[in-house]
Amino acid sequence: MIGDRTISAFYAVGTLVFVLLAWQFAVTVLAVPAYFIPAPSDVVTALVRARALYAANFLVTLWSTLAAFAIAFVLALLTGALVSEIRFLERTLYPLLVALQSMPRIALAPIIIVWFGFGPASKILLGTLSAFFPIFLNTVHGLKVVDSDQIALMRTLHATRAQIFWKVKLPNALPFLLAGANIGIIFAILAVIVGEFLGANRGMGYLIVNQSSQMDTPGVFATVLLLSATGIVFHYSIQALRYRLLFWARGSEVSGSKV
């Protein structure tokens, strides 16, 4: 029997194929110049022709993104746990972090590049700042919305504060934590690319700037589509992780959808 996930994947692939075919047909029939809108075949040709160049720059961006996301995830989880467990930090640190969230972090990119140079350190820092806040806020919210009856039950069993956190609060916060991670990793790659736009000697953002200056439109489209595919892989990887970790919630999710 075909599952819902297989059907969803079929619809996604079918939609993508239809869009690519319609794009190829429209560009060919209307004779649109390649420097304006290249055909998918031109984009694929550009990608294959310069595959070594794309691979080298893609690995730089991928490394910076994964490093930034990993640092942001750990910091957000630790900070969120401390804020939710320590009343003093909730009153002092939490409002400050929420205020910092409204700060245009991308606008700080030139300053960060001046401080840390054109290497990967500035891109990782920028990606970490961008990915931290959605993970942190979702973590705090997930740790706060625990069922009070579960905590009361654990206390009647003489559970310690640490046991309540690990056995009740953290599992309850996992859906929120992974939702924040899903947003955070996209923010991380966007911030890294912006950092590469502004100042870098390697990376996909640096490659887009060079291709644009040379009017290499098929190359720019190839770079953008490669980055889009990377974002899709990130998204579905976290969705798969969520499906694995939250196996205990599948039944409730299914029953809830039937109500």
Your description of this structure?
The protein has 259 residues and is mostly helical. It folds into two domains: 1-31; 39-249, MetI-like fold (Orthogonal Bundle), CATH 1.10.3720. It contains eleven helices and no strands. Helix 3 runs antiparallel to helix 4, helix 3 (51-85) runs antiparallel to helix 8 and helix 8 runs antiparallel to helix 10. The longest helix is centred in the C-terminal third of the chain and has 38 residues, at 161-198. It is globular, with a radius of gyration of 22 Å. The protein starts with a helix and ends with a helix. The relative contact order is 0.12.
What labels would you give this structure?
disordered C terminus, MetI-like fold, mainly alpha, 11 helices, single chain
Basic shape: globular
How many individual helices? 11
N-to-C series of helices and strands:
HHHHHHHHHHH
Q: What's the architecture of the largest domain in CATH terms?
A: Orthogonal Bundle
Which CATH C-level class of the largest domain is it?
A: Mainly Alpha
- In the predicted model, the low-confidence regions spanning at least 5 consecutive residues are 251-259
Q: Under CATH, the topology of the largest domain is which?
A: MetI-like fold
Largest sheet, if any?
Answer: none
Total domain count? 2
Mean pLDDT score, rounded?
83
How much of the polypeptide forms β-strand, as a percent range?
Answer: under 5%
End-to-end CA span: 23 Å
In total, the number of strands is: 0
The CATH superfamily title of the largest domain? MetI-like
Rg to the nearest angstrom?
A: 22 Å
